[in-house]
TrEMBL record:
Composition skew (Acidic residues), residue ranges: 160-170
Motif (Important for interaction with partner proteins): 165-170
Keyword DNA repair: yes
Region called Disordered, residue ranges: 108-170
Subunit and interaction comment: Homotetramer.
Entry protein name: Single-stranded DNA-binding protein
Organism of derivation: Salinibacter ruber (strain DSM 13855 / M31)
InterPro entries, per the entry: NA-bd_OB-fold (IPR012340), Primosome_PriB/ssb (IPR000424), ssDNA-bd (IPR011344)
Gly residues biased stretches: 136-155
Role of this protein: Plays an important role in DNA replication, recombination and repair. Binds to ssDNA and to an array of partner proteins to recruit them to their sites of action during DNA metabolism.
CDD domains in alphabetical order: SSB_OBF
Length: 170
């Protein structure tokens, strides 16, 4: 039987300040827009810059930490999975949106006011520079215990726990 994998790794810069809100049951939801850039040389020998935009959502304590320490322009590493949502618009048309559900975040660089992001634990098996801190499902982010990945608010996958299989060099 084949095993499937839904894993996303992104490193980019926020295009806007994070937007934090809470569900009716009090679970934090942080929406972010992340830009990733790549460049290549076209057939005419000209360098072409291409930007791709990603909608990233962080739930629970991870969302609160992202909102607290990230701002427009912040460089951040996200690990998570792709989720597609379906709904009907006002005209009854079926609409879809695809987003990255962040399960881990590493803040690359300084946060607002030059503060080093989070008091989070470093990635397993690594000793990051003081300006690189990690927050996510297993390591405690600033403010105590691990981020909540559940809340009984009907959010898909809210009862899942992410556990990395191994230490990857990236």
């Amino acid at each position: 039987m084949a095993r499937s994998v839904n894993k996303v790794v992104l490193i980019g810069n926020l295009g806007d300040d994070p937007e934090l809100r809470y569900t009716g049951s009090g679970t934090a939801v942080c929406n972010m827009s992340l830009a990733t850039n790549e460049s290549y040389t076209n057939s005419d020998g000209e360098e072409v810059q291409q930007t791709e935009w990603h909608d990233v959502v962080a739930w629970g304590r991870l969302g609160e930490v992202c909102n607290e320490y990230l701002e427009r322009g912040s460089q951040v590493y996200f690990e998570g999975k792709i989720e597609t949502n379906q709904w009907e618009d006002q005209d009854g048309n079926t609409r879809y949106s695809t987003e990255v559900k962040a399960l881990e975040a590493t803040f690359l660089g300084e946060g607002p006011d030059g503060a080093v992001p989070g008091g989070g634990q470093p990635a397993q098996g690594q000793s990051p520079a003081p300006s690189q801190r990690r927050a996510g499902g297993q390591g405690g982010a600033s403010g105590g215990g691990p981020p909540s990945q559940s809340g009984g608010d009907g959010q898909p996958g809210s009862d899942e726990t992410f556990e990395p299989d191994d230490d990857l060099p990236f």
